[in-house]
Every structure is written in structure tokens, then in C-alpha cells.
Design brief:
The chain is built from four helices and eleven strands. With 219 residues, the chain is mainly β.
Length: 219
């Protein structure tokens, strides 16, 4: 169970479009592929992320390596708070209080914790990470899809995360985050797909707190 959840955090060098899973072009050159155009699209994606104060959405998580699929509810609150509440019976909880990201697997009684800036999830959570600085526009054959790969070249161990946005007038910044993909060093790809977005919902800070009262849990 923990390996599938870890797919959210440990990424690699490649990802495909979540919305339009067609092969991407080899490069962003040609018409519409100028550096200025790419910079504008990245800036729009950054504005869309920063425009989210709170978000609740359904998610589906798929792992290519195991073929397993699970679902749940994502809650996001800025700055830096997130909660993946998995479906009933799935013994994993992923939660961030704005400082640390924690994965809890109650089946194996294991808890692991990272600073939010030291994982690909930092692209969503870390207010100090400038997505425009670390983001690269990936070409897409669908003009309604924007894919941004985020990586800290100074810290490759933090991994890579590719965010996918769809153009939607009612979403912050006109772009809706529809999911992301990660791939680990063993080429195990994990995909998150979001749906049913609700913006501006009331999310209390207690929703993003985790207190493990067991005396001997593993960090």
C-alpha cells in the first residue's frame, strides 16, 4: 500500500498528458513554440495555482507497475496544506499541515514524513517554490491542455512532477488543474486524475493535522 502512495512523491524524468494521452512532439519548436509563448503559458499555470485558496476534488490514482487503482477525495488549502482521503478500506492517509508531508499506512503501522519542499509535491505545497522558475512547458497535441514539468535542477533527488491543466473559464486563472503524473527510478508511473472541482469551500485547519499517539511509530 505504501509503495502506491509513494508514487505521489517520488518522480522521474517523464510524463504524459493526463487529458490527451497522445504522443507529445519531440520539442516545442515551430509556430507557437517560441520561448515567449512557453513563458506565457507557464505564467498562466502559475497564476492558476496561486489563485486556488481552497479546493476539494475527487481523485483517481492509478499505478502502472501494479495495475492498482484507488480513489478518494483531495482537499487543498493554501499555503501548503493538503489531504488525500482514500476510499474506505484503503489503509493510507497522506496529509500536509503546511510544513511537513506525512504518509501513514495503518496496515503496516508505518509513518513517513518529509519537509514539503523536498518532494515533487512541493510544486503544489511549498509557497517558497516558484513554479515559473522550476517549470518547463511540455508540448501537447491538444491546444486545450497545458503540461508543466517541475523540477529543481539543483536538487534532482527531490524528483520531478508534471502538472496538467485544462482551459476552463470558471477556474482560477482560467486553467483547471486536472491531475499530474510521476515516475520513479524503476519507471513505475503513477497518475492522479482530478474531477468534481469545488473552489472556495470551507476547509478547517484541523483537517490537515495528523497526530500519531502510538509510542513506537516509524518516521
Amino acid at each position: 500500500m505504501l509503495r502506491l502512495a509513494m508514487g505521489l512523491l517520488v518522480a522521474g524524468p517523464a510524463a504524459l498528458s493526463l487529458v490527451a494521452p497522445t504522443p507529445v512532439m519531440a520539442n516545442a519548436g515551430g509556430a507557437g513554440g517560441s520561448a515567449a509563448h512557453a513563458s506565457t503559458q507557464v505564467d498562466q499555470a502559475v497564476a492558476a495555482l496561486r489563485g486556488i485558496e481552497t479546493l476539494r476534488a475527487n481523485f483517481v490514482q492509478r499505478s502502472d507497475s501494479t495495475g492498482q487503482q484507488v480513489s478518494g477525495v483531495l482537499s487543498l488549502k493554501r499555503p501548503g496544506k493538503i489531504r488525500f482521503q482514500y476510499q474506505r478500506g484503503y489503509p493510507v492517509l497522506i496529509i500536509s499541515d503546511g510544513k511537513a508531508l506525512t504518509i501513514v499506512d495503518s496496515e503496516v503501522k508505518q509513518t513517513q514524513r518529509w519537509p514539503i519542499g523536498k518532494s515533487p509535491m512541493g510544486a503544489l505545497l511549498n509557497p517558497a517554490k516558484d513554479v515559473a522558475q522550476y517549470g518547463t512547458l511540455l508540448p501537447s497535441l491538444d491546444p486545450n491542455v497545458t503540461n508543466i514539468r517541475v523540477t529543481d535542477r539543483g536538487h534532482p533527488e527531490y524528483g520531478v512532477m508534471t502538472l496538467s491543466f485544462a482551459h476552463k473559464a470558471g477556474a482560477p486563472g482560467g486553467l483547471e488543474l486536472v491531475g499530474w503524473q510521476t515516475m520513479d527510478a524503476q519507471n513505475r508511473r503513477t497518475t492522479i486524475i482530478l474531477s468534481g472541482h469545488q473552489y472556495g469551500v470551507d476547509l478547517g485547519d484541523d483537517l490537515f493535522k495528523y497526530l500519531d499517539i502510538r509510542p513506537n511509530f516509524r518516521r
